[in-house]
Write a structure and sequence with these properties.
The chain is of the alpha+beta class and about 110 residues long. Helix content is about 30%, strand content about 30%. The chain has one domain (about 1-105). Helix 1 (about 70-80) runs antiparallel to helix 2 (about 90-105).
């Protein structure tokens, strides 16, 4: 499901919040999660992107960075329910995706 983004070449590079990328993962169904250390805003920053759906950033202290695997699982669950545009019940599934995103952002503010 998750694989290193761009074959892992981004690890060790400067990230969007001024920190260093420690993990940069892409989901095969269209999502990316980047973990950076020592950003300008917090000890750790996690940036989430559900391609075409949402973007979310979370600032963490050292005591909460261990939640990263749980965050990946929650993001994968959203990716798994995103419908294709040609699916007959796509509209109903969009509502479930929207609810999943809302729950994700509430769970990981």
């Amino acid at each position: 499901m998750w694989r290193p983004f761009d074959d892992g070449v981004t690890v060790g590079r400067l990230a969007s919040e001024g920190g260093i990328i420690v993990r940069d993962e892409e989901h095969e169904l269209g999502a990316r999660v980047t973990l950076e250390q020592r950003s300008s805003n917090a000890p750790w920053t996690v940036t989430y992107g559900g391609y075409g759906w949402f973007f979310h950033m979370r600032f963490l202290g050292s005591e909460t960075v261990g939640e990263f695997p749980t965050m990946l699982d929650a993001m994968a669950a959203i990716s798994d329910i995103i419908p294709g545009s040609d699916e007959p019940d796509a509209d109903a599934k969009v509502a479930a995706v929207t609810e999943g995103i809302h729950e994700f952002v509430s769970r990981f503010p």
